[in-house]
Amino acid sequence: MYCSSECRQSAADQYHRVLCQGPSQEDPDHPINKLKDAWRSVHYPPETSSIMLMARMVAVVKQAKDKAHWQKLFSHFCSRAANEEEEIAHKLLGEKFRGQLAVLHSLFKAALYDDHLSRWFTPEGFRSLFALVGTNGQGVGTSSLSQWVHACDALELAVQQREQLDSFIDQLYKDIEKETGDFLNCEGSGLFLLQSACNHSCLPNAEASFPDNNFLLHLSALGDINPGEEICISYLDCCQRDRSRHSRHKILRENYLFVCSCPKCVSQMDELDVTSEEDEEEEGEAEGETEGDDMEDEMTDV
User: Ranges for the SET domain (predicted)?
Assistant: First the structure.
């Protein structure tokens, strides 16, 4: 669905002609549908934003008259799959994911191969493309439910009415979680060049948001920022930032390939490497999972 005929035409001009399935949209044997189904089988919740963002990147280059321009633009995003200095490799490149990635690579190549992008379709190029989307992909927070909840928060209500409304909203999120897993106020994934250039801090001085309920990202200061001071956002959500230093570092190492040395982490250097209670619970649950389940849990962060 598109918000206007102009947006629909823009999509057609930029990438949609390559990805359009026409009358084969419901055909399970269509190469793109096979790719989507394979991704859903290894990813939970069962959305397709990450793999289709990669597909859209290919489609944009394939449709573009100036292919070199788009290839150069995409090259500005970090796409490394390992940090050799820190001896860190992206968690998706481990042995237990090799089979699933090989299947996705084969289907991706069958659906979208293009000679101009041949390096993206090699095994190493595909892993780099995966790392690019996993590292730089920004969830597009345009959830109508999120907007409604924010509007509810702004209402002036009596104490009893506020308690009833909050209870209803809490239950609504719990009901959604039963069906889709952790419900994130996110309706897609996108690449934003300026936002991706911001480094991480566990005490960020800026945040990315979507206050207009569309795809336009706003980078807003959380307080006064002095001239020359680096603008930092957090790659972690609010709950993750409240976890122990050890837990935060684990997430950042596995997903973003660096060891955080922000002021908060430096101030906690003398703390024991203790995993937060949330992580301990997740690890306890994981002990009873099968090897196939591991891929689902790990891929959720990408």
Answer: 56-236
> Is pLDDT at 144 greater than 80 in this prediction?
no
Of 137, 161, 196, the last residue of a domain is 137
Residue 299, domain member (yes or no): no
Do 133 and 168 belong together in one domain? no
Q: Which residue has the tokens 């207009």?
A: 212
Q: pLDDT of 188-205, one tens digit each?
A: 788 999 899 999 999 999
Give the DSSP per-residue string, 74-125: HHTS---SEETTTTEE-GGGSGGGHHHHHHHHHHHHHHH--GGGGGGGSHHH
Tokens of 117: 């992008």
Residue 16 DSSP SS3: helix
Residues 6+ apart with CB under 8 A from 28: 34, 37
- The Cα–Cα gap between 98 and 14 comes to 33
Domains in the chain, number: 2
| Number of other CB atoms surrounding residue 269 within 10 Å | 8
